[in-house]
Amino acid sequence: MTDTPNERDRLLMHAYIDGELDPANAIAVEQRIAADPALAGERTRVEALRRALQERLPPEMPPPGLEARVRRTVGVAAERARPTWRALAASILVAVMASSATTWLVLQPAPGDSVADAVMDGHLRALMAPQPIDVASSDRHTVKPWFQGKIPQAPRVVDLAPEGFPLVGGRIDVIGRQGVPSLVYRRRQHVISVTAVPDSAHQEPPRSVKGYNVMRWAADGIGYWAVSDLNADELATFARLFRETPADR
Description:
Elements: H1 7-17, H2 23-35, H3 37-56, H4 66-74, H5 85-98, H6 102-106, H7 115-128, E1 135-136, H8 140-147, E2 167-175, E3 178-187, E4 190-198, E5 207-209, E6 212-219, E7 222-228, H9 232-244
Antiparallel strand pairs: 1-2, 2-3, 3-4, 4-7, 5-6, 6-7
Helix pairs in contact: 1-2, 1-3, 2-3, 3-7, 4-5
């Protein structure tokens, strides 16, 4: 296993996501993804970026000549039906954006977005990064001090490993032009982001957005937002344990 998928596997994965593979090759790619955590992570990041592009960028008619340029770029003859030139163009765009700072710009919260939307965007950006954390540690005594001096207030950090939600680290997200701390926990293969935001007038109920569950609770003037593709019941259990577990345990 490698930490980074090779170029051939990446290209096959893009074709798989686009629905451009025949059934036999699609099954082979599915098996490859299931056996390679790095490739599975790459798939998650690409699919998250695609969803963000669909939500953020309005559909527009392609300019004249774009189809021909895309076909020339990838060496596809005009008479070939597969892969479609639109799918190829989308794959090129995602590949370029996933490897550049443009990803951060596309996923920046749009004016008027709620705190929940901004927290969700931070979670998606983390999933598309090589690692969803800036500091990697399962020790809360390492993670909490790391935030000090970087943001106004370090978050409350609890050890939930005995309950099956191990801490894996933390990162800094930006919400409303302010740096805020995000803790990262895991449940099996699921990533849970817990972002601490100074409490405000936003009173938003838990919700599900495109397969991701979002939960919010408040304590000591701080709003805590948990985001994950974990099922709603397990995320609710995590939120309860986070609230009830003493920080000094």
